[in-house]
Amino acid sequence: MKVLANDGISKSGILALEKGGFEVITTKVAQEQVANFVNENNVSVVLVRSATKVRKDIIDSCPGLKIIGRGGVGMDNIDVDYAKSKGIHVINTPASSSESVAELVFAHLFSGVRFLHDSNRNMPLEGDSNFEGLKKAYANGVELRGKTLGVVGIGRIGQATAKMALGLGMKVIAADMFIPQVDVKVEFFDGQSITTTIVSQSLESLFKEADFITLHVPAQDGYIIGEKELAIMKDGVGIVNCARGGVIDEVALVKALDSGKVLFAGLDVFENEPTPEMTILMNHKISMTPHIGAATGEAQDRIGTELASQIISILG
After folding, report:
1. Do 216 and 154 meet the contact criterion of CB atoms below 8 Å apart?
2. Can you state the percent helix, strand and coil of the chain, rounding each to 5?
3. Residue 119 CB neighbours (<10 A)
4. CB 138 within 8 A of CB 119
């Protein structure tokens, strides 16, 4: 049987699938050609990440399709319920990229509190002519230790982020309408660990209490953070979104950054992908990455082998 990994798959995933008797195709097929390619090549499994969309049109056009797999967590680029109604298995890898995304959250947090994203732009331009001026401009850094991190959505990735925050000495609060409380175990290199319980609170109280806010929620109808929510936050708050674009009102965010209400933002996802707004791209108070939360070698290895094992158990 043939597997089309249209957005790529790790070498370890390919090897595991080949060992299970599958032929893996890694040719990148244009979105509008996916259905034709699947039918012409008798593809049984289509694997995607965030680029390729598997909507009703492809599902209807490909009667031989048995599995649609998403390398990652969110499946908003797949018509999941419709696929299942047609007898197609839909799989994903919710646990594989949690640590990678959590580390990126902290990359943005560290960048924001020490102005790294801005100093990395300006040091090559002015480092030799305005060293003292830049030193003064970036002199008001903030420590993360001892501050309160508000985690919106305390699922797998939220918990991985909470563990890193706890290890750093931060206080962690959370808001999640589906998870009333969770035990978070922070494990150390020598086998020791500590466990703490995080109890969900209201979004409003989290926004009021948190020094820094990180979002870990699926795609939504409407904003989680808009003008009203920004208004009740602490002055000088830092906001990170490595979850999904469209959960923060970017116009309201830019306004709050310009007024100083928000100290910095860290964005890995955007309302308009793959063409983020220029007002976002040019804002010197925003640390930005191009939707790379799960893009580490380790995460891609875990994603590939987990997809392979699920496919083999379903069709093997």
Report:
1. yes
2. 40, 20, 40
3. 17
4. yes
Distance CA 49, CA 5 (A): 9
**In angstroms, rounded to a whole number, what is the distance separating the alpha carbons of residues 45 and 64?**
9
CB 106 within 8 A of CB 167: no
Instruction: From the candidates 156, 244, 250, 302, give the one annotated as an active-site residue.
Output: 244
55-95 pLDDT, tens digit each: 999 999 999 999 999 998 889 999 999 999 999 999 999 88
Q: Is the dihedral of CA 34, 246, 104, 253 positive or negative?
A: positive
Residues 6+ apart with CB under 8 A from 136: none
Whether residue 222 is predicted with pLDDT greater than 80 in this model: the reply is yes
How far from each other are the two terminal CA atoms of the chain, in whole angstroms? 10
Beta strand 193-199 with 181-187 is antiparallel
Output the average pLDDT for the chain: 97
Buried b (16+ CB within 10 A) or exposed e, 129-148: eeeeebeeeeeeebebeebb
| Stated length of the chain | 316
- Residue 196's DSSP bridge partners are 184
Query: Is 273 considered catalytic here?
Result: yes
How many other β-carbons are positioned within 10 Å of the β-carbon of residue 190? 6
Q: Of all residues in the chain, what percent carry a pLDDT higher than 70? A: 100
pLDDT digits (tens, 9 = 90+) for 170-206: 999 999 999 999 999 999 999 999 999 999 999 999 9
For the chain, where are the alpha helices, taking DSSP H only?
11-19, 34-40, 56-61, 80-85, 98-113, 116-126, 131-137, 156-167, 203-209, 227-232, 250-259, 278-281, 297-315
CB atoms within 10 A of CB 158: 29
